[in-house]
Amino acid sequence: GPDGDLLATTVSSRPGRVNFADHPLFAAAMDDEDSLRVSAPTNAHLLRGKFIFLTRRFDGSDGRGTAGLVSILIKPQELTNFVRDASFGPKDIVAVIGLDGITRARRQGDVFSAGEDLRGKLVMQMQARAPNGTYLGPSSLDGIQRYFSHRRLDKYRLFVTSGVAHDAILAPARAREKSYYIAASLATAAMLLGYWQLSQGMNRRERLTERVAKSNAELRHAQRVGKIGNWSYDPATDLVCLSANLNRMYGRVAEETVIPLSEAATYVWERLQSDIRSRLDRVVLTGAREEYPLTVRVPGGEDSFRHIIAEPILNADGSVVGVHGTDQDVTSSKRLQLAETKLAQLSRIDSMNAMASTLAHELNQPLTAAANYLRGSERLISRRESIEREISEAIELAGKQVQQAGNIIRRVRELVSNSQNAHRPEQLSSIVADSFAMVRGAGISSTVKLSADIAPEADGVFVDRVQIQQVVVNLLGNASEAVSEVTDPSVVIRARPSGGDLVKIIVEDNGNGLPTTGEDPFSLFVTNKIDGLGLGLSISRSIVEAHGGRIDVERTGPEGTSISFTVRSAPTQKEA
Predict the structure, then answer these.
(1) What is the overall mean pLDDT for the chain?
(2) What is the three-class DSSP state of 4?
């Protein structure tokens, strides 16, 4: 009623007499003429807790005077029911605020509150500046940066504001930004990886190109140095492809590397042109390698000797699809070979002069021995002191020495004519025995002890008997002369296997040794004898080396000299 007394209420447990005359809301509501007043959250006398009073004054039935007030009490959160079905984030807020700065109701996420005093806060400043608008700023209660939108309800002296957190607004964008960054990073990484792979590939390709170029340069250089070129032949097109160096070797233009086989054959003598094609056809048909010499005529009219190698080119199933080969200029070596052959002939002819001296030296021993035997026979006959058998033996020995001289002449003639030496299996012990007889017959003192020590496994040798016998005789003669002035003179011939298929023969004496003149004793015309020619050891070395052996002075000095030489051992029956 107008006096503040409670006239009626929906509260079931109605108290006794209650008067609101002294309540602040009563006086304020009685002053409003015809508007709904929405109070700040206030403690209610009849109900426990804070309520919002929706109050309106009403007049009497005659229109005169104030009949009283009607007030509806609601919970503050009822004012936020209009967003009940909205999607609210934990930082999203909606608030109904009076123009007096007191919050009627506020919801943040799922939390409700009311009665906050916002006077002088940013929200009130922005409301005063623009009743309806938006702004970005910190919340007056928690300081969280939000986007706010507010609208004023003039009729009720209220405004409604809603705020969405700045982070929440940007979350999708930031999520998209993050995904964009991730995608961009992945794209960048993929691009970088692709670039790295491309760079590595290019570097590998560049290095490979450099290696190939270097290999090609080295190949071209090697071909120029070795005077060799390569070629290939395609039987399907009958074309020949020449390498750059082979082009130069034929004096051709560098660019013309592919020519018909018929044109390539013109560099060969006409009588050999058909042979070139037949060899290539044989490689294609049989798949066998061909290797043959060839004489070509290069520009300038000179003949060039070539060594050709041709090999088949096979496809995946093993069929021959072409021929690849090399062409090497061997003119220099061929001419050198011809020159060596001619030089050898000239050397043999030139050696005939030396052979005359050789004959004079070598024939001296057997002819002297023969003369001594005949002279002894003549003396025996004149004295008639010998029986017929002794004379017959002396004459027989003389005949053998003459025969030996004939053999020497025949061997010298074969050497000059470049005939093959008569190498055959011989018994070394037999050669040594005949040599002992020769040196004895040539007048070697009987005081010199000649002996042989030949191992059974070294008795078989593969030699020219006459020539090796002459070597042994030369060495025995020199050794016998070297011991002529010593007490108990002796000369020994030893023979032992010397590894592989060689036999080592050593002639040892106990003489005073070779003179120390500093000259090679095996050199031609080197001698320390007053009547010597200096040919014996030189001829011996030539014979031994012709047998594939080697002759050396093993030791020499006041206690004697050892000269050794090697010859091939006789092959076994199986080897023969």
Answers:
(1) 81
(2) coil
